[in-house]
Amino acid sequence: MHAFRTHNCGQLRKAAVGETVRLSGWVHRKRDHGGLLFIDLRDHYGLTQLVVEPEAAFFNSVELVRAESVVRVEGRVVARSDEVINPNLPTGDVEIRLEAFEVLSPADELPLPIFGEPDYPEDIRMKYRYLDLRRETLHANIMLRAAVTKTIREGMEGQGFTDFQTPILTASSPEGARDFLVPSRLHPGRFYALPQAPQIFKQLIMVSGFDRYYQIAPCFRDEDARADRSAGEFYQLDLEMSFVERQDVFDAVGPVTHDVFAQFSGGRPVTDYPFPMIAYKDAMEKYGTDKPDLRCKIEMQKVSDHFRGSGFKIFSQILESDPRNEIRAIPAPGGGSRAFCDRMNSFAQREGLPGMGYMIFDENEAKGPLAKNIGPERSEAIRAQLGLKAGDAAFFLAGKPEDFLAVAAKARVLIGEELKLTDKDRFEFCWIVDFPMYEWDEENKKVEFGHNPFSMPQGGIEALEAAKTDEEKLSILAYQYDIVCNGYELGSGAIRNHRADTMVKAFEIAGYGPDVVEEKFGGMLNAFKFGAPPHGGCALGLERIVMLLSDQENIREVTMFPMNQQAEDLLLDAPAEASPEQLKEIHIRVVKPIEEKKA
After folding, report:
1. 296-327 exposure pattern, b = at least 16 Cβ within 10 A, e = fewer
2. What is the mean pLDDT of residues 166-194?
3. I need a labelling partner for 27 at 20 to 30 A (CA). Which of 209, 327, 368, 572 fits?
């Protein structure tokens, strides 16, 4: 018999009745039922119920053992009677009558409970993450992540991709976030950077003549944590392909993504492949965001013309004051109650807007201050445009779209949820395409890159050279795209700019001269001078995929050893101060920030 176990704790079934077995694991729960002691023994694989009779020589030892102690047991497998079978447990038809019991590693009093998984402060959970990981839900999330990763690898290799590793110590990245810097001992005063993404290297892999690259890549960005973004580090499915157009990238990664979600969705519907494509401009107009949750079918519409020159002076004056201003409407089928409209107006005010105007439609007319001021004819035209009927409502926002779209996007989703118009139990995918190559930097009053600066502009260098005014430059689109699911950006990518002359011109429009391009990206620029294939790719966030599949709202729930909101590792106490000897070796002197004196 094996020293620790003949079976694991999730393995025994009725066929094993009568066998003598040995198990090892953690004491998950202990119960006293009229003299009999019951223990749920847990390991990585599951739970098995143990029964200890009062006459057992080790009965007192079992009574004293604490939860989460590691024990080894031997006993005979017996069938449970019909009335105590546990149908929710794979081993629920059997139990083990113990004949031997030994504590392999006693547990002290626990700083957080394992059984029952009650809510507990995050700092305790992070400090004792090894205990937190014993909880069933978190343990299952991590195993789901491993299974998803394995399936992704199989899918990518089935598509002809090869797993290549790229450097961790490298130069600063163009991704746009803050770098983590690593001082060089051998080169005083100089620093490596941890890669924000393998962007440059994966493009150089294409230039090197390899055709289809992928890896589950670690990425490092010195960003603040959010619920859907880790502080410090994360992993992504990173891929690149040579001699491809946009659709080729979609046809490579789309089916793999669909199959992963279909396999691990628990039967929930997943958008059929090919996923729909939505132009960035249309997404912003209909949904107020480039990350639309398509489970909510509500679409915003422009209704400016119905208010232009109308009796509702606030809106008509907004339209007259600036040609860029608009009026947008959010339809609310079934939302035609004053109480609901007041709640939504309060929501907009909490989000920083003056509020949201609204109309309520009944069989004969539209009601509310807006309807009263613009009159029945205009109100009816709005109702007809939005396709609404009696019992419905519409909400209105006015001004520069960039000032209200973020709130409008949230309001659209909230309306869908409140009115039960959103099917939450599904996964809805789309590609957002045709992103602007450039955007306006209001602070510096200049044209700046909108997203990835290495994207190919639509129309190539000819489009760049033809753009003379800021307006013309801002109208250039790029072969950039995002893959979105249920309101989350899962990944982004582009067909790359593979021409040195086009790259220099693209940076010139954003205000960076050839010397800057040479200094910052000389390695890539020079590589392009020696024959670079047209290429493109994308990257999908692994944690976000698993977060969606496991129905979690925080990415830390699918990360084995995450940092907290303040980017601290409470388990190993990082970041920590370096010793004087360490600092001397790397030629660093720490100057702490001056604390402001309290008044």
Report:
1. bebbbbebbebbeebebeebbebbeeeeebbb
2. 89
3. 572
